[in-house]
Amino acid sequence: MTGGPGKAGLLVEGAAGIATLAGGVRRGSSQGEVATLESGTGSLALACWDGRILAVGQSDDVHCQISAAGYPVEGFAQLDAAGGFITPGLIDAHTHLVFAGTREAEWQMRAGGAGYLEVLAAGGGILATVAATRAASDEQLLTGARRRLAAMLANGTTTIEAKSGYALDTAGELRLLELTRQLGSEGPVQVVPTFLGAHAVPAEYRSRHDGTAAYVSSVIEEQLPAVARQRIAQFCDVFCERGVFDEHQSRRILLAARELGLAIRLHADELEPSGGAELAAEIGCCSADHLAAPSDAGIEAMARAAGAGTPVVATLLPATSWFLGKHHFAPARRLIDAGIPVALATDLNPGTSPTLSLPLVMSIACLELGLTPAETLAAVTINAAHSLGLGGRIGSIEPGKQADLVLWDVPTLEQIPYWLGGAPVRTVIKRGLKVFERAR
Ligand code: NIG
Ligand code: FE
Predict the structure, then answer these.
(1) How confident is the model at residue 423 (pLDDT cuts 50, 70, 90)?
(2) 9-88+395-437: what CATH class?
(3) Which residues sit with their C-beta closer than 6 Å to ligand 1?
(4) Terminus of the chain with fewer CB atoms < 10 Å: N or C?
(5) Rounded to two decimals, what is the model's pTM?
(6) Each residue of 390-409: pLDDT tens digit?
(7) For domain 90-387, which CATH number applies: 3.20.20.140, 2.40.37.10, 3.10.20.30, 3.40.50.2300?
(8) Atom of ligand 1 nearest to the CA of 320
(9) Who contacts 142 (Cβ-Cβ below 8 Å, separation ≥6)?
(10) d(CA 423, CA 417)
(11) Domain assignments of the chain as residue spans, ordered by start
(12) Residue bearing the CA closest to ligand 1, atom 1
């Protein structure tokens, strides 16, 4: 691992500020504490060695630490931050990365009044993407996903979670997870795979009177054991929503997944209160996602879990509410005030959120969820890392952690979401390596 040709180290100097996010998961009043170092009168430096953060702080201190520890000065490649702001690499903890086809016609039908679940019930929506994905070759799926990963990287994203869920049969779901594994191994974006066989009931089960129950059994008895045997997913997820998979079916699937060694998360209360937040708290999901319409009891259950030291991260997806044309968004302030850690993600998918930009999601969260820029930054770094069980390795700039960094073309944290859709990324570093540089 090198920071430049023949160098194991990387030394970044000249930043206007560095939001380190040091100090663990953020919740309640700490949601907006991003632990910023400012250049002030001196200057800042950040040193990496062998893919990890070595030291961060005032330049003189960092130089002293480097030489006191015996690292050779000539072993460091130099990077001039030229007055830009530095954050940890962004983490997108909810994406549907691998799919074929687009659904702009359905988007326009919704603009004309059609409901998201009505379109699904009529065989469109998720099922349209399932048909296109089943028909696509591995190479077609990889090409589309690689293009999307490159755009995400250019927007500052260095780690994503990626769900299956557009095949809905054992062989097809394994294929999507295998392609996901391959994409992660190609890098530079790190990919955490999630099995989402319970994304919708596929067409071949819909004509049966017991279609949903029979499909749930096939997920539990066939798909999950095959996924676990191949050790090809870290998480299992379920689309828990009235009219899709109910709370009881979701509980059975997630508990079976946990028995088989997978960690669990879920799509909860996206469209209406469906018992998702309550379930996530009851069974200890790492994350409950969407939460655009949680019940009071659900918020209280998540608050109790957080208070007891077993928080379920609330991963909010405001680009989805926006693109669905909803006029109500997740009650982010209430969740924060209740002490629940809040993360933000794109929900990248061809139906409800065709965006590759976490900075855009941060902007929407400021405008529609009422978060501050600092709260949104914690949401796409340290809290997103915790929702993926990676809080000890990524999500903050602290000695020993993976050197995943974004050097922004703006001097303040506030300007990141301020430039609406502008994504002012200059350089992205993954594991100490420069992996993206914006053409000037
Ligand atoms: O999180 N709601 C379920 N899954 C996705 C949408 C997937 C799709 O419409 O293709 C979501 O919004
Ligand atoms: Fe989703």
Answers:
(1) low
(2) mainly beta
(3) 96, 125-126, 129, 239, 267, 270, 320, 347, 349-352
(4) C
(5) 0.97
(6) 999 999 999 999 999 999 99
(7) 3.20.20.140
(8) 12
(9) 179, 182, 183
(10) 8
(11) 9-88+395-437, 90-387
(12) 347
